[in-house]
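Input sequence (284 aa), recorded before submission:
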Amino acid sequence: MKKFKKRLKLFFRNFKSALTRPEMLVLPGQLAFFFILSIVPTITLIGYGAGLLNLSTDVIYNFLAEAFSKNVANILIVHPAKTLGAGYIITMLVGYYFASNGAASIIVTSNSIYGLENKSFFRRRLKAFIMTLIIILLFIFMIIVPVLGNKITEMIAYVNMKQSVTTKILHVFNFLKGPITWFIMFIFIKLIYTMAPDKKTESRHTNKGAIFTTFGWVLSTNIYSYYITHFAKYDIFYGGLANIIVLMLWFFLLAYILTIGIALNQKVEEEELEKTSKINIVKE
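Predicted structure, token format:
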């Protein structure tokens, strides 16, 4: 129990240190801006990838429509063309380049927090391409989870099992759907945190930041969604721009949490290096 309290106290100390960093006044806003620039091409690429796997992108649309509004969902969701031509392939490549701006900004943000110099533009862009692919795969996996659950229940119903059994299995899957999705999010976020800085970062140093960001994104999205649905009246002040404001604030919230996660990881690594250094001095 004492060990747990000590770890909890250390986490909150690191969290406070990350929250009060001067970079937190600037970096989340910059990151959110590039998120907004890259989100539509990213969702378009996700839609194309899901189409190749015969998956429906209705999950993304329904999430955005329920969390915010149908107008917000319509702003973001762009249905890709069904046929592949040279022009469409070129458009997708250009879209992929713009989508990689979000990942590139994560790299720059990480370097700033870790106190590193940015590598060459081409090296950073190559890494951003790989990280963008990881982000797209993350969203596709998040689409697969609910689709897979529906397919399983359809198969069970097809073999004429009792309706009560089908309902129980559906309840179990719906219960597990959240933790499965969160675990997938954690793995991908941890991978992004490990790759982002222009230095060798040990995977174990990114655990706390990845856990914080995973639950932070889930919790903040649900709270913000409830706030938007029941309390916020942005249309009074912003009129037709209200839907854009809703999106911008949401992306800023996600970017702020992501930046705190990076700062937490940096603090964990810094403390471990200091601890190792003290041990080496004692041994000498």
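Checked by second reader. The mean pLDDT is 76.
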